[in-house]
Amino acid sequence: MYPFGKGFNRFIPLLLLLIPMALYIVFYFGPSILTVIYSFTDVKNLPGSTYQFVGLDNYKDLFFSGNSGERWRSIINTLIFMFVVTIVQNGVALFIAVIINQRLKGDYFYRAVFFLPVVLGVAVVALIWGMMFDPLNGPVNRLYDVLFGYQDMFFGSFTHAFGYIIFVQIWMYMGYSMLIFLAGLQSVPKDLYEAGHIDGTSKWQSFRHITFPLIAPSFTVNMLLSIIGAMSTFDIILATTDGRFNTRTMAYDVYKETFRGSLEMGLPSALSVIQFLIILLFVVVAVRQTRKREVEY
């Protein structure tokens, strides 16, 4: 029976959805459409300013203007950031989730420890690793000196700063991926492992032919979250290097051009559209590839 009754009561669910739908349109869908429109204009971030459509001029400026080399470098950095974070973060998270799923003593404590960086916030994480990577008195530099006789500038290094930002990003969000994998692992029926053990399967064979196919939906979710999160990251870069030392990404460029640039909204809007299309491309490819491995039980 329909739980909301008959007559006008049948429309109660639709009425309840009006407020969240309105909020979504105002704060998400509407600005997204305006961003696409602005990408074809010369609009400025000034109250009352007029604008006109300029066609594809903003897109041409992104890739063929005098500073287009910086744009290409930002795109390359974004792709590197996305690939490394997605692969390493999910690989480490899956490894830790498998270990914790073995019902270790104090497993709830380990879950809390690995998930803690997720709730700390970007400012706190940047402060922590800023002190850890202090080139003068930081403990990591002292450890480098003792073990390897080597010292680094960390977030002040042109060659290594981007790698350390990738490390901090993985450290911060790995716990989130771990919990998703752990939820998937705990949903795998135990009798499948018992049947595999009777058939003489090894631990690796059990993981490859039983565990991994059944946790493929968790893997799909983590892949999507990692790709979207990595491609959209700018806050940790802003808090650590502020885009210096060859650490700029597309998301950081959008932020800089919008809030700290020349007040032109057309160029960062075009860059946002390009960023969205790249994210969409990788998300579609990732979903198609991972869905092939999903198994319903």
Automatic annotation (TrEMBL):
GO cellular component, one term: plasma membrane
PROSITE patterns named among the record's database cross-references: ABC_TM1
Membrane topology: Multi-pass membrane protein
Cell location: Cell membrane
Tagged with keyword ATP-binding: no
Pfam families noted in UniProt: BPD_transp_1
Keyword entries, A-Z: Cell membrane, Membrane, Transmembrane, Transmembrane helix, Transport
Transmembrane regions: 12-40, 75-100, 112-133, 153-173, 212-238, 265-287
ABC transmembrane type-1 domain: residues covered: 75-286
InterPro entries the UniProt entry points to: ABC_transporter_permease, MetI-like, MetI-like_sf
Single GO biological process annotation from the record: transmembrane transport
Main location per the UniProt record: membrane
PANTHER family in UniProt: ABC TRANSPORTER PERMEASE PROTEIN (PTHR30193), INNER MEMBRANE ABC TRANSPORTER PERMEASE PROTEIN YCJO (PTHR30193:SF37)
Family to which this protein belongs: Belongs to the binding-protein-dependent transport system permease family.
Protein name: Sugar ABC transporter permease
Source organism: Paenibacillus glucanolyticus
